[in-house]
Amino acid sequence: MTALRLLLTTDTHLTPRYPNRELPAELWERIDAADVVVHAGDWMDPALLDAFEERAARLVACWGNNDGDDLRARLPETAVEEVGGLRVAVTHETGAADGRERRCDARFGPGGDTPVDVLVFGHSHIPWDSTTPGGVRLLNPGSPTERRREPVCTYMSAEIRDGVLTEVRRHELPPGAPRRR
């Protein structure tokens, strides 16, 4: 079976308030090449969602705490979809790092309300890759536009082969990387 190529991003924070902030060209190239794009919220501009919907072969996305009513009307708080034989959820917030695995297992683990194999989340702008005791893979790709306390902006890519998540990689974006809308 061929691998499904995933692009994971979140916290793009594009808004007309910051007209000079754009997504890195590298991220757009990865979006164009991916089989599935996952965005964990904080879009801030409906035009960006339009662009993702136009360019992504398939988009799995949710809204974030900074997204207004227009984006919340178009996206769920938590999206859950089957992707390549895996149940994948995407939500913006999972709370503090301390206790994250326990909380995510309670909701998304085998005994939770919404059992999944993979949970993609955002909010902190801090990349995260762990597996809960119940076996849920937790991934936060960081932010491609706002590094905050991190040394660089980031996003992730992964593959799904025969129902198994493989090739999970964090990509660092160099400062001053070419950007475009």
TrEMBL record:
Names of the cofactor(s): a divalent metal cation
Domain Calcineurin-like phosphoesterase, chain residue ranges per copy: 5-162
Enzyme Commission number(s): 3.1.4.-
Keywords assigned: Metal-binding
Entry keyword Metal-binding: yes
Entry-linked InterPro entries: Calcineurin-like_PHP_lpxH, Metallo-depent_PP-like, Phosphodiesterase_MJ0936/Vps29
UniProt cross-references to Pfam families, sorted A to Z: Metallophos_2
Tree of life domain: Bacteria
Family annotation (Gene3D superfamilies): 3.60.21.10
Keyword Metal-binding attached: yes
Family: Belongs to the metallophosphoesterase superfamily. YfcE family.
Listed PANTHER family: VACUOLAR SORTING PROTEIN VPS29
Protein name: Phosphoesterase
Organism listed in the record: Actinomycetospora flava
Organism lineage string: Bacteria, Bacillati, Actinomycetota, Actinomycetes, Pseudonocardiales
